[in-house]
Fold each of these.
Amino acid sequence: MKPTIKDVAKLANVSISTVSRVMNAPDTVVKSKKTRVLDAIEELKYKPNALARGLIYKKTHTLGVVIPDIRNAYYADIIRGMEDASKKLGYSLIICNTDSDRNRLFSYLNTFYEKQVDGILYTSNPIYPDYYKELQRLNMPVVLVSTHSMEYELPSVKIDDEQAAYDAIKFLIDSGHRNIGMISFDLSDSIAGMTRYQGFVRAMREYNLEFSKDNICFINEFDHDPYAAAEELFKKAPDVTAIFTASDILAIGLMSYLHENKIRVPEDISVIGFDNIRMSRTSIPKLTTIAQPMYDIGHRAVEKLHARISGEEDDILREIVPHEIVVRASTRLIVP
Amino acid sequence: MKPTIKDVAKLANVSISTVSRVMNAPDTVVKSKKTRVLDAIEELKYKPNALARGLIYKKTHTLGVVIPDIRNAYYADIIRGMEDASKKLGYSLIICNTDSDRNRLFSYLNTFYEKQVDGILYTSNPIYPDYYKELQRLNMPVVLVSTHSMEYELPSVKIDDEQAAYDAIKFLIDSGHRNIGMISFDLSDSIAGMTRYQGFVRAMREYNLEFSKDNICFINEFDHDPYAAAEELFKKAPDVTAIFTASDILAIGLMSYLHENKIRVPEDISVIGFDNIRMSRTSIPKLTTIAQPMYDIGHRAVEKLHARISGEEDDILREIVPHEIVVRASTRLIVP
DNA sequence: CTGAAAGCGCTAACAG
DNA sequence: CTGTTAGCGCTTTCAG
């Protein structure tokens, strides 16, 4: 059995309170006893039981994170950022997959509650009224990651999706493209769907460029077939010269489709993605994309949650982190 | 504050033991009280505190998983498999990144110990004597995932790496290739390095094919630059007709390098990878590869760990799961 | 400075 | 069937 504080006390011939003290307030113990205790701890390789401690302190130094699907490469760096920040701040991460499913989400929130996590990192999905209600009820600190809520006062960390999409389209327009297509997420997705679509529309309007519904193809973010989307878009708008996709994964799927159909990128069609996942650096051709600072988003989110947990003042409720355009080889200039 | 069992007891006008009973042995409580308690629980939205329970049961229903680097796409499906199995069996997963660093690993093992996880999933890295010693000392159930140990009696789940590599080379040979190169992990990596290299050697020998040291380029798995590796191999062995890489990520990096240097795949050079990560389905060209059942490995590992935790008989200590070759577009037949 | 005792939230005998 | 009591491992008054 694992040694407990009792075993240490017995071995060091002191009371358990003294053992507790050398761990929590070493200065209040006389040196002679302190060394005896320290030796006993060393000999038994004693480590305090975090459950017992958590019961008293009401802190578990554990954070719960919900993610739609960890297989999506987008989350790899976010989690890495969270992990590094957590290690630094002394937290462990319980990671859960929701598949964007309400029941799974609620089930995990319940687990978090029972396990007394100190806070929750909620990723990507929108916050619906009943989600908010549940979160309120649980009464645990939350920060939204790569998503946010305008209706509710919930802290969040994300980029400016509308502006980012606008910048992508503006880049294409500045490169001489006029007939631009987009593979977008469903507009029902208020975070990655609607906003990026709006950025597209704003840029097109601003430059007085016409576009029809056929220029855009909508798909479900968490249940999509990039190939099918690419095919659909091409049937509807075969003469676009550039396509903006709402994610790099879509862009890579699109390029794969184009390659199969002997359409060259960027000679025949320029492609610009969104996210800048690792893969976009080794795709063929290398992908031009809107880069999100995924690692920083994850890192910052944990810091922000930590601040909330510690009751520190949290200056900005809805944090916007900068995006940037990374120009690689999948887009080209069109000289009229 | 969160409601406790006391609050429920008070509201239902029974003792806390009765409340405890309706949760753990409902049949031993008379209906009238039971409904009163259930109503109180419902009204207060009471959920038992897992810390308190864990303290008594000495079970936390939490598993610790260590992974070299979660950004590596290889782990995405493994974790997904673990996640699904965990949900099914009632576990939560604490996921940690070690960067294959001893100190980080030991630090996390320590956290696992303090947090009283029920078991540990140890991924990919070899088990060194001091790791084993530490694992022994902690005295927690462990299962090795995509790695194993011949020296120690540790349960594991993985494919037969040597045979898998052999199959890859055999496939190339059967396709008419004679001058075959390999980008391998360092031989100091006894799991993914040495074994796959040995599979390569065995196949070449078996078919009486000559190969020199120049046909192989070794790199560090967790700190590599696929480009540099590709370049190095090409300088040393420019006339290979096919290359086997120890991972899909290496293969994709290699194809990117080849594309930049106007070497066509598979027309000029065939490429076969290892793993079958998602990306290999959308690479250009689509990658021929040795498929590991990552999801199953993760899933099975959790089941196996659960069996150990529950003290069930665990038939096979070192489980080997089947691999298969997935032929796509990055390899071609050579007709002499 | 230090030990005894109470208590964190819950379960498990043990009487009744 | 059910309430009382004694812990699980640890921290924290409270005397001394």
Amino acid sequence: MTIYDISEKAGVSIATVSRVLNGSSSVSEKTKKKVLDVINRYEYTPNAFARGLGLNTMKTIGIICADSSDLYLAKAIYYIEQKLRANDYDSILCCTGYDLDAKAAAVNLLITKKVDGIILVGSNFIYEEDADNQYVVDAAAQVPLMLLNAALDAPNIYSIISDDFTSMYEATLQMISAGVRDIVYFYNSVSYSGKKKLAGYRAAMEEQKLSAESGLLQFYQGSHEDIPAMTRHLMKLHDQGLNFHGVIASDDTLALAAVKYAKLMGYSIPQDFSILGYNNSMLVNCCDPELTSIDNKLETLCQHLITTLMGVLDGNEMPKKTVFSGEIIHRGTTRN
Amino acid sequence: MTIYDISEKAGVSIATVSRVLNGSSSVSEKTKKKVLDVINRYEYTPNAFARGLGLNTMKTIGIICADSSDLYLAKAIYYIEQKLRANDYDSILCCTGYDLDAKAAAVNLLITKKVDGIILVGSNFIYEEDADNQYVVDAAAQVPLMLLNAALDAPNIYSIISDDFTSMYEATLQMISAGVRDIVYFYNSVSYSGKKKLAGYRAAMEEQKLSAESGLLQFYQGSHEDIPAMTRHLMKLHDQGLNFHGVIASDDTLALAAVKYAKLMGYSIPQDFSILGYNNSMLVNCCDPELTSIDNKLETLCQHLITTLMGVLDGNEMPKKTVFSGEIIHRGTTRN
DNA sequence: TTGAAAGCGCTAACAC
DNA sequence: GTGTTAGCGCTTTCAA
């Protein structure tokens, strides 16, 4: 069933059918009804490719994330996808893993598919070396590019971020002023936001004249879901003679491992041992006591990202970088 | 930059360019190289719409799930998306929520977008009433339709499922034979697989001449992430005078709530209280002791789903229904 | 208000 | 081995 069939059955030209389809220029009520009747009777829907060919857009946004099964990224995708649909856009999802080449390939793939914009979900798409970010800059030459939780200053790139530095800085200060001194910073990512968080921790420690070195910085390398492995990591620290009574984690999962560690050690939380998580995910309720964690307002970030993208697509001038504040949600793993 | 530009610059016809692009019929090495050089020099990529118009396919599969932030569904999406890409297909993702109309709308949207196939991820797409499944049957008239964790017998519909009935049946039997009698079945879904699980529990209870009634069947209605609310649900049961020393949950999240409940009650696990989860998700490591859970081999299911879909797309005869067995992974919340 | 016709960029059947 | 050409289904001037 094509526009020709409809036009024939309705006794009008294809141009007229196209007009009622798009509500573009004016068509008499009478012909309009006639055409609509035929369209409905035959349940005709226009061919998206043909339309795309002419308009050169398919109202589709590409979403790229490293791992859609990551709790945080999954949530972000959920929000983004919903809000996109609310704006009459569809989304193509690509999960790339954490390899740079795969990321670049995904970006190119989406551009080939003629998406109207690309959203990079998660801070791991922006690297330290400028050269490694070239694929993002290049892509932005073709379509607007949105960064969630990362920032890069280049034409046609829009960054929406949470102020991870400040969140971590303040959370660390709070833990210190609650009397905890030997605080391990436990992290698993050196992405854009990963670095901001780390910097926040360091700034607070240094301001309080505490060393942020001597093994307190602990980078965990391994599956992002393997809590036992994370716990072992901390256990090994202890075995090596490191004495610590607080853990600030870059992620709730790591924090959960710290809870397990503390229990294994027989510490009581938060009296002997304090723990702070990040993301305020569903995991905060999974342990006992429940986890203090930083809420970085993911839904707000996503909402804003889509609003900005829609603005850009409409040809409006939009802010290149938007920063929201996080919030520390106090629960049972920290004193205050 | 179009195929015409390339053909001109390379001094050949557009047909030749098309041929080297698709590697269809033979082109002499020399012309091939000539064309490739031009293509690379100008970084030309063919227009996907135009190609789609001609071929009437864009090598894209639609994925529909209710909620991509659900731990289990997110993982499924991850596997599916990866395996799809490995087969040179992209995916359009739609998250519909749990409303029937929204699901039907998503299906239609994808068909309009000319996807080559649709994957319904999760058992909540198939309803008890035949009438409610009509949207699936209708869609299958247009494109092959894959069901993950649900089954429906109709033309062009392919179901890939885990044998939830047997898994639950055996797990329940094990718990009973370990001496637990008053076992609450704690569930939050009456979807296709939800019903199978429940039936497995009931069958085992009845076979052991135990009542599966009198409040032992507990349906939790509320956020799928709100563990405290789930815990309160169990607490209320206790307050109402129900005495129970085991929980079989349809989901790890619910099981986690049961762990919290048992601790609140001062029971020691698994001596006084046994708990079984489902999905073997990352949550099994989040509690202490770790959760015994049923692994339903999600990656295998997904792999098989894609293999089947690719077979169908290639025009091969493929099995309409494939059933895999789950496996009970014993950890600390059950005796045996 | 409506229709005719020229693209949009590509594939594939057919001719040479 | 290579070129010509007819679609694919739609949008959009331009005329009427």
